Amino acid sequence: MDGGFPVSLWCEETEEDQSQSNTRGSPQLRAAWDPSVSGHRVIQRLLHVEERYMPSLLYITLIQRDPERREELAKWALEVCCDCGCDEAVFPLSASLMDRYLSAYLSLPVSPYCLAAGCILIASKLTECDTVTADALCAAADYSFQLSNLQEMERIILATLRWDTAAVTPQDFLPHFLASMEERGESEQELLATLRRHSDTLAALCVCDSRFLGAPPSLVAAASLNCALRGLGSKGPAQLAVMSEMLAELCQTDLAVLQCYSDMIEFALRQRLSSGLQQSPTEKDEEVENERPGTPTDMREIDF
């Protein structure tokens, strides 16, 4: 064997203990980050592909006129994914599948929750090793549909989408954007991990909110990351401006558009925070207000 090419057969997968959120018991195996599958080339490929998985303009217009039903299904899907301990990539992918299916039919099926559960089941099979079970999804919907109905819905979704289910979501862009920030020496490792958690939460907020339905996933990811940077308050105005320009360049959009969507996310987050405070007991209002930081991107009080 040539000594110039060191070969290692060491398995670098690590177990992540998700006992607090994973109700399926077994820890998730994570492969180590591979720099060869990141960078400008991969981002360009994702940008080229993402347009193919956008819902139709007619569907977007109809939903934005009357968003309540779609947002109700999206929030239910998010709750189910959280309760079942799904990977963070499952929910946005399931929402994308649901939007593309509804975009084809422009009407809800007899059992909308069966549709949402079928999308979660397909997304879990695509992104997880230990997938969520069909029985768990039926139980999450209080058995408003049977196992046979869910299996039939899964087949209908796959047939409608012609088995093209590996859609591009905001979560696909986030690790590459963060890796670009790390390469340019803009952030420390600990800050990057915090940014990833906050950006995932903000991206999930955008997926639930129909106002962001027509936005490309790359723009949602960049705006979520930009909001997380603002909310953490660890960078000065000059550094924030440089990072915003870098994110706009990575997602190939105008800086003004990125700032506009960042402001929209902050406004949507304030609405969630205020609605959460209104629903809390009156005797705790003052205590919650005192504990909550004065940033618009605080993750602790979001009520989905």
UniProtKB/TrEMBL annotation:
Taxonomic source organism: Cyprinodon variegatus (Sheepshead minnow)
Record-given protein name: Cyclin Dx
Domain Cyclin C-terminal: start-end pairs: 168-294
SUPFAM superfamilies: Cyclin-like (SSF47954)
Keyword S-adenosyl-L-methionine recorded: no
Region feature Disordered, mapped onto this chain: 13-32, 276-304
Keywords noted in UniProt: Cyclin
Domain of life according to the entry: Eukaryota
Family: Belongs to the cyclin family.
Subunit comment: Interacts with the CDK1 protein kinase to form a serine/threonine kinase holoenzyme complex also known as maturation promoting factor (MPF). The cyclin subunit imparts substrate specificity to the complex.
CDD domains per UniProt: CYCLIN_CCND_rpt2
